[in-house]
Amino acid sequence: MKAGTLKQVVAYASPAMATAFILNPVWSILPGVYAKDYGFDLALLGSIVLIARVFDAITDPVIGYLSDRRRESGGKRGNWVLLGGSFFVIASSLLYMPTLPVSEGKVLFFFLLFFLSYTIIDIPHYSWGSEISTDYDARAYTYSIRTAFVFCGQILFYLIPLVTGEGEYNAETLRFAVFFGAVLMAATLFFSRHFAPDKARESRSLPRRPYGRVWRLITGNLPLLIFVASFLLAGMSLGMWWGLQFIYLDSYLKLGDKIPIIFITGDVAGLLAIPLWFLLVRRTSKRFAMLFGIVLNVVMILACLLVSPGVSWLAPLVIVVGVAMASSNLNVVYPAMVADIADYGELKFRRDVRATYFAVVLLTYKCAFGAGSGLALYILGRAGFDPAAGEQDAAAILGLQIAFVLMPVLLAVSACVFVALAPISKARHSIISKRLNREPSMLAES
To answer: Which residue of 69, 92, 174, 432 has the smallest Cβ count within 10 Å?
Structure first.
């Protein structure tokens, strides 16, 4: 396999642990904490999240384009990761430890700064991994290691209540996360900076076409457009489910004291499943592996309809474990698929714009995820669901079932149609790689 050494891949992937540690609270507990501790309205918070995610998505292609341009002129992806990681820590301190009173304008500004800094680290980091490993299977291996660090970061965050003795997630959890996250980010950035190569392959010296017309590089890449369609639907589905997960467990099922162990167990299961997903990719294909993960996710989400207050906490534990395993599948497979799509684009357009392609995919996902989270919170708010109430009425429970189960399942099933249409198989990628490594004069015939 054309891959970096284990040390190089680990060094590259390590900042993902710090990023996941800091990012995790935004989707897992921040809505519940803001509603319970700061008295923030859920519908208003949903609108703010939607606006922030749309802004976040708009900045993705900008950062991707600048990263590609800088790389072409001899710049390093690692410099972007260092810059983004530093600002990410600062932005998290503002969002997770807001000064009182917590106004909507202040929260919106903090969200915008938070997601901008996240984009600066995330887009170049994903692109960097596709340069370290260029083989079909080697990329799945590289992104498996990266996904393992993501889950380690999430697990570390979920351990905070057990470390602090709080027993549950609250505003104090977020304060602890800021300080520990800063230390973790500094350590992993140092390791990555000194031991990860910025590019493991030699330049192919392809004959160049004008760098402009970026829009043509996107719309002319059919495999990219098919993948984007699948991610639009899958992103909305995941956004709706993850956006309400904490509220579902804490305010509906009244399992606040069990949430830490549920989340930790789920992420440990997701971490342990990573080698299985890598083996599934090697034995079958990335397309089949991704379809398998989506189907697993659908089954687990539907199981939520069988769980109600008073049922043993082991039931939601099984559901969270299944969803976490499906999540690890997505994180292993999708960046490897995008890297292959970028190779196809490089062959077709004579330009390596992989950061731009990653940006387009993540733009789509972030918009969809944010829209899904915002829509779910809005539906819940309009249905009269009150996180601080002791019991919910029938209308509130119906709103929860629609936003947390039925709509996410419908969207996920629709995504499967486009995933099944993904055209780049292992054999086709092998042909693409061989043609990319030929002499420029031979490439001119394609």
So the answer is: 69
Q: Token pair for residue 26?
A: 């935004």
pTM of the model: 0.80
Helices (H), 256-353: 259-283, 286-302, 314-349
CATH code at position 90:
1.20.1250.20
Rg (CA), the chain: 21
Determine, yes or no, domain membership for 205: no
SS3 98: coil
Q: How far is CA 138 from the centre of its chain?
A: 21
Mapped onto helix, strand or coil, the DSSP state of residue 299 is helix
pLDDT digits (tens, 9 = 90+) for 197-241: 876 444 444 444 444 577 888 999 999 999 999 999 999 999 999
- Closest alpha carbon to 402 in 256, 266, 295, 301: 301
- Domain hosting 75: range is 6-199+213-443
Alpha-helical runs (H) found in 38-76 = 42-72
Distance in angstroms (rounded) separating the CA atoms of residues 57 and 331: 19
Closest to 354 (Cα-Cα) out of 88, 37, 32, 123: 123
